[in-house]
Amino acid sequence: MMMKVVMNNVMFALCMYQVSTNPTDTSHTRLYKLVTELVGVVVQFYYFCYCSERLDDCNAQLRRSFSKVAWYSCSPHIRRSLIMLLRRVRGSNHMKLLLNFVVIGNGYFLTVVKFSYTFVNYMRLKSK
């Protein structure tokens, strides 16, 4: 999972760099291929981050619904099972990497976009 995220970040930056460098010098077919590849990488990575956000939203909905249930009036076996579920949903449930150092979500997507833009600007300055 971590390797996929790292490679996706690198692909995002490199695709953005290829599309932004001298688009007038490249053929229309190559430019179309590069733009299509960039759009594919962006959509795939955004969907990955969106799924992490959706996972956390569903976890929050479960947490809210458990607080409204009268679980204390159930049998002891059901109560134990519900307490286990309450323990599972009490924290956030974003996808995480590197021992919770990197939290995948919309904020991470924005960070990757900003980093890619910085990389493109750096490479442009370096090439001049």
TrEMBL record:
Keywords: Membrane, Olfaction, Receptor, Sensory transduction, Signal, Transducer, Transmembrane, Transmembrane helix. One of its GO terms (biological process) is signal transduction. It is found in: Membrane. It is a multi-pass membrane protein. GO terms for cellular component: membrane. Pfam families: 7tm_6. Residues 1-21 form the signal peptide. The keyword Methyltransferase does not apply. InterPro entries: 7tm6_olfct_rcpt (IPR004117). GO terms for molecular function: odorant binding; olfactory receptor activity. The keyword Membrane applies. The chain crosses the membrane at residues 97-120. This is Uncharacterized protein LOC103514712. It comes from Diaphorina citri (Asian citrus psyllid). The lineage of its organism: Eukaryota, Metazoa, Ecdysozoa, Arthropoda, Hexapoda.
